[in-house]
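Researcher: Structure for this, please.
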Amino acid sequence: MSDLLAGLGIALVLEGLLWALAPDTARRVVTDIANRGNGPIQTFALIAVAMGVFFVWLARG
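Model: Predicted structure, token format:
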């Protein structure tokens, strides 16, 4: 459970840094994503999930 909380904390830090350091860029990225179709978004999401699983596998061996 502590690993899950640590992972969520890291995700929130990274997400917060983007909005804190470059809010205009973050807003532009969100707008660009909203204007795209579902296909590219789903492809990116599946790649992100696969990378996340791979990184956890590397860390946990």
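Researcher: Any notable elements?
Model: The helical segments are 2-21, 23-34, 38-60. The mean pLDDT is 93.
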